[in-house]
Amino acid sequence: MKVLRRVSFAIQLLFALLLIGSAVGKIARFGLREYVIHYTNWMYTLAIVFFVGTLSLTNRPHAVARALQRWLYCPLLGVITGVFVGVTVLLGSGSHFLSSLLATIPASLLILGNEAFHTYPFIAILVYGLAHSAELAHTLRPPIVVVQPVQWLFFFYQMVGGALLSLVIYLLCVDVNQVYDTRLDSLLGLAIFSLVALAISTVPVYWAAYKADENNKASGS
After folding, report:
1. How is the chain split into domains, by residue range?
2. Among 80, 83, 151, 180, which is disulfide-ready with 142 (CB 3.0 to 4.6 Å)?
3. What is the DSSP string of 13-29?
4. Residue 112 CB contacts under 8 Å (≥ 6 apart), including other chains
């Protein structure tokens, strides 16, 4: 178990360094303003906070790691997947932003770079989920409360609300049509993002609920 924990720590550290290196490289190359106005970089920033904050070599994560696991893992999973799908939608919508990049960068290199920048955060969050499935099954359990709506709010936040929160803030701060030079309707983008986040983030939430139910049945038998 100690060996697996160390391997998991090493992989997570590698992903964290890759994310930090990508973010620093983007800021150095394009400037802070360009970094901030692209939602992909919001995803990178959230991922850096999560992967750095949850680094732990022990079987008992520290308080910050537990809080990030509970309140950021599912939203981040939704954001990363939503960005991955969103870029594909942009490519298919005839975004002039991407067309202008194709004018200066070979299509094969652009596609390869796009896949690399958007795929390895997705791989990182999945690997983390597999390596820490036992911890997540505990931290993602809904709060034990008498008031039922509180649990439903918890489920809503984990499955779609948390991921949507960052996107809504981004849309309020940035003119997406101007940044990406696209006519894609923002409400349509929100709808696609919501469906993608809901589809992927539901999995760990139901996994945690399933494990909790299993434990309850075992303790009751």
Report:
1. 2-220
2. 151
3. HHHHHHHHHHHHHHHHH
4. none
Q: What angle do CA 138, 142, 144 make, to 5 degrees?
A: 105
Residue 165 CA to residue 194 CA, distance in Å, equals: 11
**What is the reported pTM?**
0.85
pLDDT along the chain (221 residues), means of 10: 74 90 89 92 94 80 87 94 82 59 53 64 87 86 72 90 92 85 77 89 84 70 52
**Helix, strand counts (H, E) of the chain:** 11, 0
> Which element (helix H / strand E) includes 95?
none
Angle between helices 63-92 and 96-104 (to 10 degrees): 80
| Chain-centroid distance, C-alpha 203 | 14
Quick one: DSSP state of residue 157? I
